[in-house]
Write a structure and sequence with these properties.
This protein has about 1000 residues and is of the alpha+beta class. The protein is about 20% helix and about 40% strand. α3 runs antiparallel to α4 and α6 packs antiparallel against α8.
Length: about 1000
């Protein structure tokens, strides 16, 4: 896993007392530079003022208002409702130790602190050009006004202004407090020493020149930057300055914490004066503009530059790079640290020697330089001499045991001795990829197409084609084994390592043996005699014939290793396609014991100044270590240098702020008592961390207590998103780390409450539970009622079946039994009568069977729902009439309908049909009638059904008693009628026939009546 940079913080900081400062030995072009331009939409209008408040925010004052910047995004700042800035044209800013932001505008001064904007009426209408807090906490405001300028001191809420007498002229600017606590002010009338003591004027010349800026030099003398040059005030005398800035309009001046002087000019960009050297950085180098207005050094050591076209940031890097603009020749190929402290760099356009900050280039004067190569460096630290080399294109470099520097070129080889290069006449032409020296002092050179050459002295002693070593490809790297003797070769195309000794190949290892696959780009031996091989498949270790490879399976960010080297602390550095990776010695030791374990490491990428390459250089050495422990390596376009003992380490944990919360696309102010409305679907929380060195490398973790079980790792994302959070109290916490991996574990937090909707409140839930229980109880009672009704229906049905069986089936069987007994009694005396009696018994039994079948049919069948009542009764009456006719007792049957036919409730129609059918059956079988009529009347108030016959009638006592004793027919029909809400009435007399009437209210009989239709018909009938 990637090691937190805090793990190496102690080691770094113990060796780096100025870990947050810029390296003063570097030119400004060697710092990391990031521009933000107006053309890209960064801000509206030029930036006229810069300040950083203690909370870490960078504030930008423009002609169109005030902006807040966190290194990633700018936000327009507006005062709270009811409070106003003196003007949107911001001219000066100052952040004071108490957390205040002082805002100088074109029409006055205001102070922002703790959510309150305080204006100062004493400066209303004045252009506030400069703001400064001195060592005792007094804030000084200087500016322009007509007729007189003002210089005001503000302390403990009180303000006292000077210049109303005209002594300062129309303007006061700039202000400066020197290292001894003296306050200086430039004005239209000259340079003022304002405090301590009484104000004192130092005249500069006549007419008085315009003072642009004030600062100090290395000796503590005051530097006065004028429009036409620089003056120096020492011992009360004004003299010309020795700084080489004569004739420059220096608009902004800042001395950083390393002592370097940054000067912003009116038309030449940035000038950087450091360690007696001066270098420049302008629009051609990437500066946003050539007209610089303000300079600021923030709390992390970044230098901020505002120009007419945007904003620029400069900061130090872990790896500094020497480019062509520092005097390096074009196209570096190899780099070698010599024992005298110099560094040799082979390039396409000459051999470069770096020593003490100066570069000497050795060239063959007869060769033309590469087109586009600069003749001299911008800072003059470069010299070109005739080196007498075979070719200007330098390939591999090597220093032998005698201290001679060997250089190979496509046209041959040469060595440096006594400050002169001596060509080796016998050395063949061609590309040499690596050089090694064996124990006998012979040099071995790996030629791409010619094979392996051994030079003894200046003569070729041996040549071996690659096929003689069992390979079709060439050796990309060589290493002399001074412990065991012999030579190790790492091959290019198919990879693999070969051990060659005494003219024979003694051993070969490849990917099948555990070695990393692909090209072998570097070889070295450690103190234990183990061979380390940098390959495209990882870094391999070969010991006692066994190989193990460290790669992405062990947690590394990628596989390909261009080279590997150990620093003075025995940490391994690997230059990989994904950056420069450092693994400390304890991790190496643990991995050698268990090659399958995952290791911890640190990655240095482009944010640290390390350029990653997909391929390696052709020649060697590809990396070298100087006597001071620095590592020099090649990123193709220059030479990079990293000092493992003095890494740029940012020890300041970044301030973390929660900026706003957006609920359903509506922003809410962040406060300690934040209540959000109910039913929030989409919640967004915006936060930031104020590390301005490399904000893009800042890492965040957040956790919503009450929702998230653990911290969420979100990388550099500065928003948290949540959906459909239930109502309750929450606490959102966020922490962040800076570019060096230092975490602010306290971070920031926000408590908020999402209100519940009415149906999410506890009382509503309790009410729902109560209602549910009541409904459950009601359903239980309703079910009990249903069961009771079903039981009652079953009992009623059983009663009806009992009646049917008693009234018809059992009586007929009883009568049949009587006839059978009578037949038995007369069988011996009167056979003819016995036969007649048996025939009557058989007839009664058949009648009983028929009635039983009818009863069962009534139980199991339902009349068709699509038939109306008249049709059903017509079919039933006709069946009964045919039965009577078959028995020799024909009956006339008729059904009449009166009124408009209506749709009946299906269940009610079934019950009415069964009652009417029972009445018809009784009339046909027991009334001895000759005519039976059915009259159906669909009325507005009721459905009336009448059945009449001209039979023998029913006795009055039978009707009054509900039927004969032991018979249930009349009682069953009345119970059925009552169950459906109907009324059943009978009229009869002996010998006068019978009339039965079933009346059912329309509200029960007709479904349409429930909708109000019949009520309207009743009204129409009444009106008519």
């Amino acid at each position: 896993m990637i090691k937190k940079r805090t793990a190496i913080a102690i080691a770094v900081l113990s060796c780096s007392p100025c870990a947050l400062a810029l390296n003063p030995s570097l030119d400004v072009k060697q710092y990391a530079h990031t521009p933000w331009t107006i053309r890209q939409g960064f801000v509206k209008g030029d930036i006229q003022a810069l300040a950083q408040t203690p909370d870490g925010y960078l504030w930008l004052g423009t002609g169109f208002g005030l902006l807040r910047f966190d290194g990633i995004r700018t936000v327009e700042w507006h005062p709270p409702k009811g409070q106003n800035l003196p003007s949107n044209d911001i001219r000066s800013l100052a952040a004071t130790r108490d957390g205040s932001l002082w805002i100088g505008a074109a029409r006055g001064l205001a102070r922002w602190k703790d959510g309150k904007l305080t204006p100062y009426p004493e400066l209303r209408g004045h252009i506030v050009l400069n703001l400064l807090e001195d060592h005792d906490g007094t804030v000084w405001a200087a500016g322009y006004s007509n007729p007189t300028g003002r210089l005001c001191g503000i302390q403990h809420g009180g303000i006292h202004c000077y210049g109303q007498d005209g002594s300062l002229g129309q303007w006061v600017d700039p202000l400066y407090e020197d290292s001894r606590g003296n306050l200086w002010a430039g004005s239209e009338t000259g340079l003022w020493h304002w405090k301590p003591g009484a104000p004192k004027l130092y005249p500069l010349a006549h007419p008085v020149p315009e003072i642009i800026n004030i600062n100090e030099d290395e000796d503590g003398a005051l530097l006065i930057f004028l429009r036409d040059g620089i003056r120096r005030l020492t011992a009360g005398e004004v003299e010309a300055s020795r700084l080489p800035f004569a004739g420059l309009y220096c608009r902004a001046v800042r001395r950083d914490r390393d002592g370097s002087l940054w000067i912003g000019t009116n038309d030449r960009g940035i000038l950087h004066w450091h360690e007696g050297r001066i270098d420049a950085f302008g629009p051609d180098d990437g500066l946003s503009g050539n007209n610089v207005s303000r300079l600021l050094e923030d709390r992390e050591g970044n230098i901020w530059v505002s120009t007419v076209n945007g904003l620029d940031r400069f900061h130090d890097l872990a790896a500094a790079t020497i480019f062509q603009r520092q005097g390096l020749s074009q196209g570096p190929r190899s780099v070698l640290a010599a024992r005298d402290g110099s560094v040799w760099i082979g390039t396409r356009n000459g051999l470069n020697r770096w020593k003490d900050g100066r570069i000497t280039i050795y060239r063959n004067r007869r060769e033309r330089p590469v087109p586009g190569a600069p003749p001299v460096a911008a800072n003059g630290a470069r010299e070109i001499i005739d080196g007498g080399l075979p070719d200007n294109e330098s390939l591999s470099l090597f220093q032998d045991r005698r201290g001679r520097i060997w250089v190979t070129t496509p046209r041959g080889a040469a060595y440096l001795e006594n400050d002169r290069f001596h060509p080796v006449r016998s050395a063949p032409e061609g590309y040499v990829h690596d050089i090694a020296e064996d124990g006998a002092g012979d040099l071995w050179m790996s030629y791409q197409n010619r094979g392996l050459f051994r030079l003894r002295g200046e003569s070729v002693a041996e040549r071996l084609p690659w096929t003689a070593l069992g390979h079709q490809d060439f050796a990309f790297s060589l290493l002399a084994d001074r412990l065991r003797g012999g030579l190790w070769l790492g091959f290019a195309a198919r990879g693999g390592v070969t051990y060659f000794k005494d003219g024979q190949v003694r051993a070969s290892y490849g990917s099948r043996d555990g070695l990393g696959g692909g090209r072998v780009t570097g070889l070295q031996l450690d103190g234990d005699g183990a061979l380390w091989a940098a390959t495209q498949g990882g870094l391999s270790r070969l010991k006692d014939g066994r190989a193990a490879t460290l790669n992405s399976k062990n947690g590394l960010p990628c596989d390909t290793v261009h080279w590997a080297i150990q620093d003075d602390a025995h940490a391994f550095w690997m230059y990989m396609t994904c950056g420069l990776v450092r693994v400390d010695q304890p991790e190496w030791n643990a991995w050698t014991i268990d090659p399958k374990r995952r290791i911890e490491f640190t990655v240095f990428d482009i944010s640290e100044g390390v350029r990653s390459n997909a391929t390696n250089t052709c020649c060697s050495p590809r990396v070298t270590k100087t006597a001071d422990g620095k590592l020099w390596f090649l990123p193709f376009d220059g030479v990079s240098i990293i000092d493992p003992r003095h890494l740029a380490f940012n020890k300041l944990p970044p301030p973390v702020h929660i900026e706003q919360i957006i609920a359903d696309r509506k922003p809410h102010e962040v406060s300690s008592q934040l209540h959000l409305p109910p039913l929030i679907r989409d919640l967004e929380i915006d936060y930031t961390a104020l590390s301005l060195v490399a904000p893009e490398t800042t890492r965040f973790r957040y956790k919503l207590e009450g929702h998230d079980r653990d911290w969420q790792e979100v990388g550099n994302r500065r928003q948290a998103f949540y959906n459909d959070l239930p109502p309750r109290h929450y606490r959102f916490r966020v922490i962040a780390s800076n570019n060096s991996g230092v975490w602010n574990e306290a971070g920031d937090s926000l408590d908020f409450f999402i209100a519940p909707a009415y149906y999410q409140t506890p009382w509503f839930r309790v009410s729902c539970v109560v209602v549910f229980l009541v409904l459950l109880w009601g359903l239980y009672r309703f079910r009990l009622h249903q069961i009771a009704q079903e039981f009652a229906a079953r009992m009623g049905e059983r009663t009806r079946i009992a009646r049917e069986l008693h009234d018809s089936l059992l009586q007929n069987f009883q009568g049949s039994l009587f006839h059978m007994e009578a037949a038995r009694n007369v069988l011996s005396r009167r056979p003819e009568q016995a036969v007649q009696t048996l025939d009557e018994a058989i007839s009664m039994a058949e009648e009983a069977i028929a009635e039983g079948r009818d009863a069962i049919h009534d139980l199991r069948s339902h009349p068709p729902s699509e038939s109306d009542l008249a049709q059903l009764l017509t079919v039933a009456g006709q069946e009964l009439a045919r039965s009577q006719e078959a028995q020799g007792s024909p009956v006339t049957f008729r059904v009449t309908v009166e009124g408009e036919r209506q749709e009946l409730d299906p269940l009610l129609q079934d019950e009415a049909y069964r009652i009417a059918r029972e009445l018809l059956r009784n009339a046909f079988r027991h009334a001895q009638a000759s005519r039976i009529e059915v009259d159906i009347r669909y009325g507005y108030d009721e459905l009336r059904l009448r059945i009449r016959d001209d039979g023998k009638g029913i006795e009055a006592e039978v009707l009054n008693d509900g039927g004969r004793a032991g018979h249930w027919g009349l009682q069953g029909m009345r119970e059925r009628a009552k169950r459906i809400g109907a009324e059943l009435r009978f009229w009869s007399a002996a010998g006068a026939g019978t009339e039965a009437e079933l009346s059912i209210p329309s509200s029960i009989a007709y479904p349409a009546a429930r909708g109000g239709r019949f009520q309207l018909l009743r009204k129409k009938k009444a009106n008519s």
